[in-house]
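Hi F.,

I've been meaning to write this up properly since the lab meeting, where we talked about keeping a consistent format for the predictions we share between groups. The idea is simple: the sequence comes first, exactly as it goes in, then the structure tokens exactly as they come out, then a line or two of notes. No screenshots and no reformatting. I'm using this chain as the first example so we have something concrete to point to.
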Amino acid sequence: MSLASSDPTAPATVPAADIRGWLVERIAFYLECSREEIDEGAPLVDIGLDSVYALTLCGDVEDHFGLVVEPTMAWDHPTVDAITAHLTEELTRR
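Output, unedited:
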């Protein structure tokens, strides 16, 4: 599911807190709300993330972290906490 980054200077791992913070920031941007309004344990669909933004988030993850993710990532891992755990694991593997 993930591919190694072609950037030899890329860090081997990214702290989960950094991934979570980045995700919350992106989702807040999509939903036009503050970071504080994002419940990291709530299903993304319940906080207003629709399928268009879920796909956009996949592209942003690929661009930001250098990972190839499934377009269903936000549905397979439906909370910020779940996506954070998934990405942390994927980034550890590369």
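Notes:
The CA atoms of residues 39 and 53 lie 17 Å apart.
Residues 1-11 have pLDDT under 50 and may be disordered.

If this format works for you, I'll send the rest the same way.

G.
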